[in-house]
């Protein structure tokens, strides 16, 4: 099981989404989420959305392990 | 180099942070501070059929979300990069999170160095990178509706100029 | 634009000046301040027969002379130029004169604007022009001897970059 | 008569110099000063030295009038 986090506008689309999932890469997690939650899926496939695993930005095919924290990050807007 | 990084809900005191920066060392000849404040409006693009117009729309409040644990690491990396590029004596980065009213302080970047050029450049670099790399997300509230702010192309361009060359 | 220009012997309070800048208008989104401090040394060039070396020499105090009546007019002209180039909401320029000990504040430049780029650029412009155009002369005291400071080529170059083009 | 002011390092060389003089241009004032005070003269002829009349930077051949305030300005070093 991996833990899921959604930030910024992605959080609005992820209100009904479970906080854990079985997936071996972020890409697979995104695919599974898009199948069940098409509105969220459209957002996650936006090219500007990045993914982090355990608080490091990673490529979408990064291998995941039990307990990995996977966060979906829209473009940042701080400052 | 002395570096202070804080992410907090409560307000900060520029005077206090300035005193810490200037008192770091007797070699400090220049201190630059940048404070970002909540304006009472946001500029929004209205994309029409034939053209794009920009309108100022007033806001009731601003809200800042961040990714605890990741933001701190990213800010440390940004400060470390600035310190590699310029000869700095001390830096301060404070970013507030949570709900903020118009006119409140959002962010403070402060740099102490021997000479003014490096303090000015490093402060600008820190702000440009913070805006485009640190995991903060801003939303505005207006008429009881929350709306996420879009990232700005101008911020991306501002950050990109630092990767072109050091002296550009 | 609100502009405050002061030449004075007494110290200034950054916090007070910052509050005035940020409270000018609810459209203020960015405030940049630059503070110049007396360092406890001056870098001096020793011109030898074969090469030029630079040495840090400690100082006891700094003294600032100016041309009353003329300096104020020049600072007003510099601020006016900045205001023509950038869209500024408020500016503050304070320069101290007389005897100053190491670690004391010499000069403050503060700029309030809507966006950070214009505040950063205008503050840098004000400092570069103040350094090369305003009628101040600095001397240092060391072992009971007074010595006038030479103007720096780097300051002249810093000021010249603004005349090349607005966006450079 | 015109009034004379010397700033920065020029002041060190002008301690014995009268504070007024008869001259029709700053160039003439400089010539007269150099004749009587050769050390000061060398300084005043440095190309970086500017002259102001009544607190305005002017060319060296600017006409002077009774009571004009003529200031000799070495390169500035504030900030």
UniProtKB/TrEMBL annotation, chains A, D:
Q: Which SUPFAM superfamilies match?
A: MoaD/ThiS
- A Pfam short name: ThiS
Q: Which InterPro entries match?
A: Beta-grasp_dom_sf, Mopterin_synth/thiamin_S_b, ThiS/MoaD-like
Q: Where are the transmembrane segments?
A: none
Question: Which Gene3D superfamilies does the record cross-reference, listed alphabetically?
Answer: 3.10.20.30
Q: What is this protein's record name?
A: Molybdenum cofactor biosynthesis protein D
Organism in which the protein naturally occurs: gamma proteobacterium HTCC2207
From TrEMBL, chains B, C:
Which residue intervals make up region (Disordered)? 148-168
The record ties this protein, via Pfam families, to:
MoaE (PF02391)
Picking any one GO biological process from the record gives: Mo-molybdopterin cofactor biosynthetic process
EC numbers for this chain = 2.8.1.12
Q: Does the keyword Magnesium apply?
A: no
Concerning CDD domains, the annotation shows: MoaE (cd00756)
Please give the pathway this protein is involved in: Cofactor biosynthesis; molybdopterin biosynthesis
Molecular function terms in GO for this entry? Answer: molybdopterin synthase activity
Top-level taxon of the source organism: Bacteria
Residue ranges spanning the membrane: these are none
Q: Which Gene3D superfamilies match?
A: Molybdopterin biosynthesis MoaE subunit (3.90.1170.40)
* Catalyzed reaction equations: 2 [molybdopterin-synthase sulfur-carrier protein]-C-terminal-Gly-aminoethanethioate + cyclic pyranopterin phosphate + H2O = molybdopterin + 2 [molybdopterin-synthase sulfur-carrier protein]-C-terminal Gly-Gly + 2 H(+)
Q: Does the keyword Acetylation apply?
A: no
* InterPro entries linked: MoaE_sf, Mopterin_biosynth_MoaE
Bias class Basic and acidic residues marks the residues at: 152-168
Q: Which UniProt keywords apply?
A: Molybdenum cofactor biosynthesis
Protein family: Belongs to the MoaE family.
**Could you describe the subunit structure of this protein?**
Heterotetramer of 2 MoaD subunits and 2 MoaE subunits. Also stable as homodimer. The enzyme changes between these two forms during catalysis.
UniProt-recorded name of the protein: Molybdopterin synthase catalytic subunit
Organism name:
gamma proteobacterium HTCC2207
């Amino acid at each position: 099981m991996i833990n899921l986090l959604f930030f910024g506008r992605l959080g609005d689309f992820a209100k009904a989404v479970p906080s854990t999932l079985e997936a071996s890469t972020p890409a697979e997690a995104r695919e599974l989420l898009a199948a069940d939650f098409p509105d969220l899926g459209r957002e996650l496939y936006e090219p500007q959305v990045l993914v982090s695993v355990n608080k490091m930005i990673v490529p979408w095919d990064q291998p995941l392990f039990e307990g990995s924290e996977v966060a979906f990050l829209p473009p940042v807007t701080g400052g | 180099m002395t570096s202070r990084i804080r992410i907090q809900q409560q307000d900060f005191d520029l005077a206090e942070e300035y005193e810490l920066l200037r008192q770091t060392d007797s070699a400090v000849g220049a201190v630059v501070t940048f404070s970002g404040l909540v304006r009472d409006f946001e500029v929004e693009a209205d994309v029409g059929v034939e053209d794009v117009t920009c309108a100022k729309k007033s806001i009731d409040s601003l809200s800042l979300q961040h990714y605890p644990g990741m933001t701190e690491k990213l800010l440390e990396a940004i400060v470390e990069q600035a310190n590699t590029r310029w000869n700095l004596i001390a830096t301060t980065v404070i970013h507030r999170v949570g709900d903020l009213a118009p006119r409140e302080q959002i962010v403070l970047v402060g740099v102490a160095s021997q000479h003014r050029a490096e303090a000015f450049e490093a402060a600008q670099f820190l702000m440009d990178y913070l805006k485009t790399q640190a995991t903060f997300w801003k939303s505005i509230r207006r008429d009881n509706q929350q709306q996420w702010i879009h990232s700005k192309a101008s911020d991306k361009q501002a950050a990109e100029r630092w990767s072109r060359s050091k002296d550009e």
